[in-house]
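Can't paste images in this forum, so I'm doing it all in text. The chain is below; anyone willing to post the predicted structure tokens underneath?
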Amino acid sequence: MNERERQSDILLPAHERVYRTLRARVMHGQIAPGVPLTLRGVAAEFGVSMTPAREAVRRLVAEGALKLSASGRVSTPELANERIEELAALRALIEPELASRALPRAHAALTDRMAAINAVIDEMIVKGDASGYVRTNLEFHRTLYLRAQAPAMLALIETVWLQAGPTMRLLYERLQRRQATDLHRKIIAALRAGDEPGLRLAIRTDVTQGLRMLAA
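Text version of the structure:
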């Protein structure tokens, strides 16, 4: 987070600040699947009353980022194989379309930026930083999809990322990757070549193969 973003957060209402911070933690896999959260604990951490803590948690439950049990227990979701498969299917449908829409607006500065992000992914892998890996991997994809100029589609796929965040961390830890996937390099090469079929295939494979390996 840069200084401008920090200053912006200071000006946010308490419930929005708590919501955004918790949302980022879940999306980036900073919280493992099945970890419980309490309103009292959230309120204490952020130095707010129970009301903004409750509002932030309520919004995250509605988005599927957190799970509310019949007993009122709140936790990060532990996804069944069927749910993982469903999220993988959604990514396979939406993300190649976003990439295709971004392709006409791709330029050297964009692909250079994506290559630089991919290098950071390698650094996260060397460090064994699971959350850093998930966060930077999503940054790689978001950087491309922003060029699609399709805000509704981007918002939809970010909701999928949010629901899958803790599971993506689990996937990274299980696979114990040593370098960024070659599919990212294929994505960059397809963008530079203006190869839409190759881009769609590389995106679809990249965003689904890990989740489907986990479900299997």
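The two ends are 36 Å apart (CA to CA). The chain has a mean pLDDT of 88.
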